[in-house]
Specification:
23% of the residues lie in helices and 27% in strands. The protein is of the alpha/beta class. It has two domains: 2-151 and 280-330, Quinone Oxidoreductase, Chain A, domain 1 (Alpha-Beta Complex), CATH 3.90.180.10; 159-276, 3-Layer(aba) Sandwich (Rossmann fold), CATH 3.40.50.720. Bound molecules: zinc ion (2 copies).
Length: 333
């Protein structure tokens, strides 16, 4: 099969890979769409994503496709021809975190498209427990977004947001836009967004943003602050923008060496909650439901670019100078 292989730091090439025999509980999926995410850029540069990628490996953890073959011991009832999406994260099931029902913290985590081969290829091989059937009314392009949406769902479970709360979303990228759309549609009173780009004001307001503010000009304090950028400056601002009793969700992926400066007195005096949210445990079904229903989340208009496999290295290297909200790869193009 044809695959785009990460062969080293900032090195990728299209290779012809021999077919593998399926393991007992594995399912072989003919890929339709794969999303490209910020994590892929980190992995491309040799930084860790949800885990460390050790080249050679095929990236692609936001995947949709059609089942083409079942391993000899598959028991889930899935059939050849089923339209599916994939939860990329494979916890071990036996470590102390897995036993404590926190599989996202698993000590032996494997991930499709990170530690093992992913969807930037003609086919992907996935354990049956990670394969989710999708409704006919959900397009493959949208279904590939089940993983990022499931990360948002898990993150929102970490904070207690009421509709009378005021929310600041820090960052206007794809996930920032998903948060705005979802929370505004859920009836949250005020969903402000801070960014650097005044050209996006109309677009963000259309999604449901109440006010669009430059990162440097945040004056108000908020009940909930959702940081979706992952750099030190915006993370520090996220914390300082929380009002008394406020909750700060650290969602953006930082570089592991980054250190931020925040006031410990503020955390004490204002009773702040600062909460991390990592990947997507127990959230795939809800994500598929949200994507299918479309009343709270309409994701197709946010998928601004569609690439072929051949175009991906240039995109990951930052050589495509267009404003990209979210790019997907059409594996059949
Ligand atoms: Zn992702
Ligand atoms: Zn585990």
């Amino acid at each position: 099969m044809k695959a785009l292989v990460l062969t080293g730091t900032e090195q990728m090439e299209i290779q012809e890979i021999p077919d593998q025999p399926l393991k007992n509980n594995e399912i072989k999926i003919k890929m339709k769409y794969a999303g490209i995410c910020g994590t892929d850029k980190h992995l491309f540069k040799g930084l860790p994503g949800s885990a460390q990628a050790n080249p050679p490996v095929i990236l692609g953890h936001e995947n949709s496709g059609v089942i083409s073959e079942l391993g000899p011991n598959v028991k889930s009832g899935l059939q050849v021809g089923d339209r599916v999406t994939i939860d990329p994260n494979i916890p071990c099931g036996y470590c102390s975190y897995c036993h404590d029902n926190k599989p996202q913290l698993c000590e032996n985590m494997e991930a499709v498209g990170v530690t093992r081969d992913g969807g930037m290829a003609e086919y992907v091989y996935v354990p049956e427990t990670n394969v989710y059937k999708i409704p006919d009314s959900l397009s493959f392009k949208e279904a590939a977004m089940a993983e990022p949406v499931s990360c948002m769902i898990h993150a929102l479970k970490q904070v207690d947001i009421k509709t009378h709360h005021t929310v600041l979303v820090v960052g206007d990228g794809f996930l920032g836009q998903l948060y705005i759309q979802y929370l505004a549609n859920r009836g949250v009173k005020k969903v402000d967004v801070s960014n650097r780009n005044s050209k996006k004001i109309d677009q963000l307001k259309k999604l449901g943003a109440t006010n669009v503010i430059h990162h440097d000009e945040i004056k108000e304090k908020y009940d909930i602050v959702i940081e979706c950028v992952g750099v030190t400056k915006t993370q520090e601002r996220a914390v300082s923008s929380a009002r008394r009793g406020g909750q700060v969700l650290m969602f953006g992926v930082a570089n592991p060496d980054d250190v931020i400066q925040i006031s410990s007195y503020d955390i004490f005096f204002n009773e702040l909650t600062i909460k991390g949210a990592f990947i997507n445990p127990h959230s795939m079904n809800e994500a598929i439901q949200l994507l299918t229903n479309k009343s709270l989340l309409d994701i197709e208009p946010l998928l601004s670019h569609e690439f072929t496999l051949e175009e991906v290295p240039d995109f990951l290297a930052g050589n495509i100078n267009e404003k990209i909200t979210k790019a997907v790869i059409n594996l059949e193009a």
